[in-house]
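Lab notebook, design round three. We kept the backbone fixed and only want residue identities now. Task for the bench partner: fill in a sequence for the structure below.
Input structure tokens:
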């Protein structure tokens, strides 16, 4: 297993990094018997802007420049051939050979990055990641929203039924047990949604259409492994808190502890919060690595740590900002339904003496309103957050492994060696690159 697994079409392996740059033109040795450079006479004066060229025109580049800090493509400083063989530096013609106004030449710099799908194939900023996530949901709304709506509807229905049972039987613990019993179902549904949405985003990046049946066929072989990754991640983070809570549990079991002792046992819990957060970000890319690279469980966990290494704060910042943005959107959408539920839920004395009724109960009208609002919120937020995580994973691989070159080839971009033209909807013509 290497640190740079392929995410490219079968039969089109990713070349080494050294092969990504232009083929160097070997220097031509002087023929035998030729006079040394010093004997060839004084050097010819540098040609001015009006001096015609006496030699052949510069040949167009034979390949792409080696990926630099941003793994883009462009030209090296100096009067080098630019885009499509046109010189693009200094006083030479710019984009397509046309100089810009006022002596400015648009050819100065790299050409725009290809964008076959929802993101440009280059390192991304936070706004581009969020825009790509929203664009994915908008372009593939039938698959993305249909999938998230089905998952959210099942989760909210089960939760509402359990809470209604708690409302009808406020003095028994059975309804609360039923409420917590819905979490395993939600866990399974969340795994299915995450796996299928990951495949939707991978196709959206390449600009390809997709259907629910196609993404199910792609994701199904990895869903059991995805469940293992999700369970192990939850177990690792939960284990940190369990160890931190052990002193508090021991003190409470000992009986009648003083307030100072209880406060002291909370210190390990506070220390566990940053540790759990650090581990969560370290394992943030386990699911995309497992689904898109067809990895095993332990390999996907190790792969995520390698991708995050050195970029923890950036991954954390983008994840936090996306959660805040989506959280604000969720509050705006859910607030009307919460208000309606409060209006439809007068004070009910039947659950006043039961902690279970206060915890989980509610009248049917209120529960129905909250369930409708929760379903609508989850339908929108589930695919957006999943897409942000996958696009952030792709961005990290572009920055570290020049994945943009492989994606451009898979999308059929001709400049990168792709041969399959794409239609107006981004569909790949027959005979094009195979599915990733």
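Proposed sequence:
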């Amino acid at each position: 297993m290497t640190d740079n697994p392929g995410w490219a079409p079968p039969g089109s392996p990713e070349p080494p990094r050294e092969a990504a740059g232009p083929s160097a033109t070997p220097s031509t040795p002087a023929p035998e018997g030729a006079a040394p450079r010093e004997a060839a006479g004084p050097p010819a004066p540098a040609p001015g802007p009006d001096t015609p060229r006496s030699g052949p025109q510069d040949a167009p580049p034979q390949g792409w420049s080696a990926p630099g800090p941003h793994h883009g493509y462009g030209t090296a400083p100096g009067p080098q051939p630019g885009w499509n063989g046109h010189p693009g530096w200094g006083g030479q013609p710019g984009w397509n050979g046309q100089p810009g106004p006022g002596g400015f030449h648009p050819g100065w710099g790299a050409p725009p990055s290809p964008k076959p799908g929802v993101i440009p194939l280059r390192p991304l900023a936070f706004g581009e990641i969020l825009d790509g996530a929203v664009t994915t949901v908008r372009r593939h709304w039938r698959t993305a929203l249909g999938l998230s709506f089905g998952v959210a509807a099942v989760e909210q229905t089960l939760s509402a039924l359990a809470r209604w049972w708690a409302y009808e039987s406020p003095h028994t613990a059975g309804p609360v047990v039923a409420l917590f019993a819905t979490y395993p179902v939600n866990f399974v549904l969340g795994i299915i949604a995450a796996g299928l949405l990951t495949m939707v985003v991978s196709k959206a990046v390449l600009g390809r259409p997709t259907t629910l049946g196609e993404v199910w066929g792609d994701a199904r072989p990895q869903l059991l492994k995805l469940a293992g990754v999700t369970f192990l991640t939850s177990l690792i983070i939960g284990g940190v808190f369990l160890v931190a809570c052990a002193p508090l549990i021991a003190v409470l079991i000992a009986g009648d502890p003083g307030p100072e002792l209880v406060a002291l046992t909370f210190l390990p819990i506070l220390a566990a919060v940053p540790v759990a957060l650090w581990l969560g970000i370290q394992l943030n890319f386990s699911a995309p690595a497992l689904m898109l690279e067809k990895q095993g469980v332990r390999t996907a966990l190790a792969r995520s740590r390698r991708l995050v290494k050195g970029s923890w704060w950036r991954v954390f910042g983008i994840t936090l900002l996306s959660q805040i943005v989506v959280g604000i959107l969720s509050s705006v959408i859910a607030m009307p339904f919460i208000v309606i539920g409060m209006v439809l839920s007068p004070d009910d004395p039947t659950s006043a003496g039961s902690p279970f009724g206060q915890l989980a109960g509610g009248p049917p009208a209120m529960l129905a309103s909250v369930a409708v609002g929760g379903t609508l919120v989850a339908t929108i937020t589930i695919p957006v957050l999943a897409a942000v995580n996958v696009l952030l994973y792709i961005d990290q691989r572009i920055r570290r492994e020049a994945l943009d070159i492989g994606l451009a080839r898979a999308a059929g971009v001709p400049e990168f060696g792709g041969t399959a033209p794409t239609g107006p909807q981004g569909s790949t013509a027959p005979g094009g690159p195979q599915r990733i």
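Keep this in mind before ordering anything: Residues 1-6, 8-107, 349-359, 421-436 have pLDDT under 50 and may be disordered.
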